[in-house]
Write a structure and sequence with these properties.
The protein is mainly α. It has four helices and no strands.
Length: 146
């Protein structure tokens, strides 16, 4: 049990670090694109930004899923990599379908994968909303000045 908690905690920290690094990269990209984003026409750029950030969120979540899937597969929690990836996706999305379950000796670790997914969706959604809010506020400020 303690091994699962320690390993799960390590994977949670690793995934938070991946999200933090990705957030820093996204912030750098926004700084570079900021002058362009706030100039007219603004609505198409906001839409483009939404699509870009949405893809960024999917990429970060995919990295997290793959980290968990690789570890679960290496531990022998699942017979195939496909099962490991599928389980990690189902756990991350907190669906918990139950059609594929881990070996009983890894069930605490499997539950921690769901916690990681819940945390990831929350943090990434907050970052997405904040990015959109910042750009939209700057666009509206530019509109009022111009």
């Amino acid at each position: 049990m303690l091994l699962q908690i320690a390993l799960g905690s390590g994977l949670l920290v690793l995934n938070v670090l991946v999200m933090a690094l990705a957030a820093l990269l996204l912030e750098s990209a926004f700084r570079l694109a900021h002058p362009w984003l706030i100039r007219p026409p603004q609505r198409p750029k906001l839409l483009l930004m939404l699509v870009g950030v949405g893809l960024w969120v999917l990429m970060v979540l995919s990295v997290g899923v793959w980290i968990w899937a690789l570890v679960l597969h290496e531990l022998g929690a699942f017979a195939t990599m496909e099962e490991s990836v599928y389980f990690a996706i189902v756990a991350f999305s907190t669906l918990g379908l139950g059609d594929i379950v881990s070996h009983p000796e890894w069930r605490i670790l499997a539950a921690m994968a769901a916690v990681n997914g819940f945390l990831s969706f929350g943090l990434l959604t907050a970052l997405l909303v904040e990015a959109l809010r910042q750009v939209r506020l700057a666009q509206l400020e530019m509109r009022h000045k111009g």
